[in-house]
């Protein structure tokens, strides 16, 4: 009999421990049920944030592609501008050489004729009407005094170019 009483006490003790453990689990389950609504709200918010981030990434990729195309176009335009600038510089150098040559020839022609002008006298006037300076008063050799160089009318672009070349010296 003592053995059955001991076994009954052991079962009663185990039942008491199980009841206590069930009460603790019940409290935790109640807390979990209360927090379930908050957890669902957080999951919905997380899902919305994920969808929004995905849309933003797609927009960002599109913008990056557009930017890449714009950069390629800008590089192409830069290369074209560099080429045109180089061509313009070489054309300006050639033009400057031609202007110097023409000035030197005009000066040597005037010196051969006996006219003495400085290089600044040979420069174009501000209105750009003629390429040659005015002749000095006629001498007794009327043949040389009656010949005049032809009058050349210059465009605005030519006048601006000559002024730029003069300022560059």
Q: How many β-strand stretches?
A: 0
Shape: rod-shaped
Largest sheet: none
| N-to-C SSE string, H for helix and E for strand | HHHH
Give the class from helix and strand content and strand pairing: mainly alpha
- Helix tally equals 4
Structure, explained:
79% of the residues lie in helices and 0% in strands. With 169 residues, it is mostly helical. Residues 124-139 have low confidence and may be disordered.
List keywords for this structure.
169 residues; single chain; 79% helix
Mind sketching the topology for me?
Blueprint: H1 2-113, H2 119-122, H3 142-146, H4 156-168
Short description:
This protein has helices spanning 2-113, 119-122, 142-146, 156-168.
């Amino acid at each position: 009999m003592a053995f059955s009483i001991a076994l009954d006490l052991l079962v009663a003790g185990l039942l008491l421990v199980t009841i206590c453990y069930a009460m603790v689990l019940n409290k935790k389950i109640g807390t979990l049920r209360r927090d379930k609504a908050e957890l669902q709200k957080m999951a919905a918010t997380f899902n919305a944030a994920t969808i929004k981030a995905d849309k933003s990434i797609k927009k960002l990729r599109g913008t990056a592609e557009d930017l890449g195309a714009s950069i390629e176009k800008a590089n192409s335009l830069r290369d074209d501008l560099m080429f045109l600038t180089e061509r313009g510089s070489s054309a300006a150098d050639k033009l400057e050489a031609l202007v110097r040559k023409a000035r030197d020839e005009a000066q040597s022609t005037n010196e051969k004729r006996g006219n003495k002008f400085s290089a600044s006298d040979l420069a174009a006037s501000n209105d750009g009407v003629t390429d040659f300076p005015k002749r000095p008063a006629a001498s007794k050799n009327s043949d040389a005094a009656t010949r005049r160089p032809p009058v050349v009318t210059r465009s605005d672009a030519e006048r601006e170019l000559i002024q730029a070349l003069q300022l560059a010296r």
